[in-house]
Amino acid sequence: MIGISLLVIFTIIISTNANSEQSAEDIIKNRKALFSKNYNTAKKVQSLSSNGDFDEAKELMLEMSENYIALKEMFPENTKEGFKTEVTPLIWEEKEKFNSLMEKSSNDMVQLISTIEDEDDIRGTLGKLMWSNCKACHSKYRLPH
User: Fold this and answer.
1) How far apart are the two ends of the chain, measured CA to CA in Å?
2) Superfamily of domain 2-141
3) How confident is the model at residue 14, as a pLDDT?
């Protein structure tokens, strides 16, 4: 767990410094890519876990956890509009709630790493600890498609 914590802190420092030097367009493109990556990774986690390939699934869960922490820093004020952002202004109005959701999502992925192999209902556990966080964010902070 100490290694995970240090890696998360390192990721935050790097993303914070990188975001201060990026244009609004780059930040928006990068956060969209990171959300998309997490979605694609979640599908892989689902498949791997369902097939009992837990070691590879756990590596991807850790990656997702780190991505959620990095996403907290990818919503500076100058990225509210433009470049097909696809997010609602509510993120900035409820910044603490949004950040808490990203933190919860990250923590849930870490919890999933430690419990997935012992679960009888893998699909249900993934729904509770992974997919429900995706849904919570999309339903509140993403523009309708």
Assistant:
1) 38
2) Cytochrome c/b562 (1.20.120.10)
3) 58
